[in-house]
From TrEMBL:
Residues annotated as domain GST C-terminal: 87-202
Keywords from the named record: Transferase
Keyword Cell division appears in the UniProt entry: no
Similarity comment: Belongs to the GST superfamily.
Entries under InterPro entries matching the protein: Glutathione-S-Trfase_C-like, Glutathione-S-Trfase_C_sf, Glutathione_S-Trfase, Glutathione_S-Trfase_N, GST_C, Thioredoxin-like_sf
A Pfam entry, by short name: GST_N
Residues covered by the GST N-terminal domain: 1-81
UniProt GO molecular function: transferase activity
NCBIfam families per UniProt: PRK10542.1
Cross-referenced SUPFAM superfamilies: GST C-terminal domain-like (SSF47616), Thioredoxin-like (SSF52833)
Signal peptide residue numbers: none
Protein name: Glutathione transferase GstA
């Protein structure tokens, strides 16, 4: 398999999932500004959406969209316990969290990375994100991971999104529960290995 990624972008989530599942993968770096891969290809020819992550399977099939990719990875190795079994209520809970992270948190960060976004708008965006982070913090105050006692692909995705706070003037220490969660997730072997491979530090 090949994972098209950009360091510390949302592709970090499936990268973590692949390592947690014990799967070999070829990492192919993408410059998101030029839309060129590290080997000089036009990334639009690989993923017309022009965004990472993109997982290319050995049969040539490609999957885009992080929540879909991480569930696919989890199902390839059920023994890794990265996702509850399909058809269970617990799987629905996983999908609920993946959807919340992708729609309410991940997309919520986008304006903060836009250099043309007015400062006033960014202030409002941070306030809105803060309320969403309050929800997650309250949930994690009662359990170590989003689904309870077991790390899942949703935690890998949440960790990835929380990673971005350092670049957008959001102090994660304002949420002690989330700060402690982030620090704890960063020490997991699969997470640490993914960060090292991408050349970034928690």
């Amino acid at each position: 398999m090949k994972l098209y990624y950009s360091p510390a972008a949302c592709s970090l989530s499936p990268h973590i999932a692949l390592r947690a599942a014990g799967m070999a993968v070829e990492l192919i770096k993408v410059d998101l500004k030029s839309k060129q891969t590290q080997d000089g290809r036009d990334f639009y020819q690989i993923n017309p959406k022009g965004s990472v992550p993109c997982l290319e399977l050995d049969n040539g099939e490609r999957i885009t969209e992080g929540p879909a990719i991480v569930q696919y990875i989890a199902d390839l190795n059920p023994a890794a316990n990265l996702a509850p079994a399909n058809g269970t209520f617990a799987r629905t809970r996983l999908q609920e969290w993946l959807n919340f992270i992708t729609s309410e948190l991940h997309k919520g960060f986008s304006p903060l990375f836009n250099p043309q976004a007015p400062a006033e708008w960014k202030t409002l965006v941070r306030a809105t994100l803060g309320k969403k982070l309050d929800v997650v913090s309250h949930h994690l105050a009662a359990q170590p991971y989003l689904l309870g006692d077991q790390f899942s692909v949703a935690d890998g995705y949440l960790f990835t999104v929380l990673f971005w706070t350092r670049w957008v003037e959001i102090d994660l220490q304002a949420w002690p529960v989330l700060h402690a969660y982030f620090q704890r997730i960063a020490t997991l072997p699969a997470v640490a290995a993914a960060l090292e491979a991408e050349g970034v530090k928690a």
